[in-house]
Design a protein that fits this description.
- There is one protein chain.
- With about 400 residues, this protein is mostly beta strands.
- The protein has 3 domains: about 100 residues, Immunoglobulin-like; about 90 residues, Immunoglobulin-like (Sandwich), CATH 2.60.40.10; about 150 residues, no CATH class.
- The chain has a 10-stranded mixed sheet with strand order 15-14-23-22-21-19-20-18-17-16, with no helix packed on it. The chain has a 4-stranded antiparallel sheet with strand order 4-3-6-7, with no helix packed on it.
- A hairpin with a 2-residue loop joins β6 and β7.
- It is elongated, with a radius of gyration of 32 Å.
């Protein structure tokens, strides 16, 4: 038998050719932002740098890339827009590649506008973004130029921010500090929420002294010269509870409305749960422990604010149940009794009767606990209202107890 080597060679070549044909890629698999959503580390990890050198038309920001997600960073920079959460479809810079820190120049901004900025980094798997920061461009070139310093302690009343004034706008800076509020873009006009931290250019530190734990605050540095007020970039933070602070907490049902988280404005002003009145009086004189609970520390919102003040004389600083009378009653029969006031925005509340029970007074753990209830009238009316379910737990953190 003769072999046809030519035909055999053609047959083998055909088998090898058809077995190596590459199938076309599924279009659904192309151009994905993240080819493995269950594993977000395939995208870069980065943060946005707080904006600096903000003027009427430009600013400086940037970012720090701490991980490339296992794929080389092929583009990085910042994106910005007047709308929140900008993307690479908005205005952007291109600032090299690779991991690490980079600086970005943001240009062609409009004076007097608020912009939102995010750093971005792109690898083969898609684009990731850093946290969002806010900048406000200067509306008047003759105003100071400044930035806001990030919060270094988010526990009120010790929260710290501040600013850095790099230009006085051609006129001396006569006032500077920070302003804060519960909504974005706080302004100097909110007289209860600002600091005054000297004059001139340069850096300064500000103490943010109000705010209930869990509250989100918005902060901006400000600087004033003869031409007006300029603001730095906006930052925000949530007020935390200091881990080792036995935070004052009061609850009360005021005429059918339950308030479960009343804390003292005293704490916001002085950093203490309690105050001791008449602490410097001669031995034998009455000294009062002042406990306060308020439903909000926003003093501009007096239409909904409720506040209860309890004054406990030192001969009642021991477990027991005591009568409550209207506060500041200095008659000889009541000046050593427990006293109470109720701040009622629309009219004057007068305590008619009530009781206060001290369940714990502990100088070792520096704590006082108890309950209370009382009746009250408004402006001498015969209608009787009630405060029930009153409880309190306060730290005895005044120097008097040290």
């Amino acid at each position: 038998m003769k072999f046809n080597f030519t035909r055999i060679l053609l047959l083998v070549s055909s088998i090898l050719f058809f077995s190596c044909v590459i199938e076309p890629a599924d279009p659904a698999l192309l151009n994905q932002t993240n080819s493995n959503p269950a594993n977000p580390t395939v995208l870069p990890v980065l943060t946005t740098t707080t904006a600096t050198t903000v003027n009427s038309t430009s600013a400086t920001s940037g970012g720090t890339i701490t991980s490339d997600g296992g794929s080389i960073i092929i583009a990085r920079g910042v994106v910005w827009s007047t709308s929140q959460n900008p993307t690479i479809a908005d205005s952007k810079t291109v600032d090299g590649n690779g991991i690490g820190s980079f600086t970005s120049s943001i240009t062609n901004l409009a004076a007097g506008n608020t912009y939102y900025v995010r750093a971005y980094a792109t690898n083969a798997n898609g684009t990731a973004y850093g946290n969002q920061v806010t900048i406000s461009t200067i509306s008047n070139p003759n105003l100071p130029v400044l930035t806001t310093i990030p919060v270094t302690n988010n526990v009120a009343p010790n929260a710290k921010s501040g600013g850095n004034i790099t230009s006085d706008g051609g006129s001396p800076v006569i006032d500077r500090g920070v302003v804060w509020g519960f909504s974005p873009a706080p302004t100097y006009s909110n007289s209860y929420s600002r600091t005054h931290d000297g004059t001139g250019i340069g850096s300064f530190v500000s103490n943010i002294t109000t705010g209930l734990p869990g509250t989100l605050l918005y902060v901006r540095a400000y600087a004033t010269n003869a031409n007006g007020i300029a603001y730095g970039n906006e930052i925000s933070f949530t007020i935390a509870v200091e881990p080792n602070l036995n935070l004052a907490l009061m609850t009360a049902n005021i005429n059918g409305n339950q308030y479960d988280f009343m804390t003292p404005y005293l704490w916001g002003m002085h950093g203490r749960d309690v105050s001791v009145e008449n602490s410097g009086a001669p031995a034998g004189s009455t000294v009062y422990l002042w406990l306060q609970g308020t439903s909000t520390d926003d003093l501009t919102n007096m239409t909904t604010r409720r506040q209860i003040d309890l004054h406990i004389p030192n001969d009642k600083w021991t477990p027991g149940t005591y009568s409550l009378v209207e506060a500041f009653d200095t008659s000889s029969t009541s000046q050593k009794q427990c006293q109470a006031t109720l701040l009622y925005p629309s009219s004057s509340a007068i305590i008619t009767s009530g009781t206060l029970t001290v369940t714990e007074f502990n100088l070792t753990q520096k704590r006082i606990k108890g309950t209370f209830s009382f009746n009250y009238t408004l402006n001498g009316s015969s209608t009787v209202y009630q405060v029930t379910n009153g409880t309190f737990i306060y730290a005895l953190d005044h120097a008097y107890f040290n």
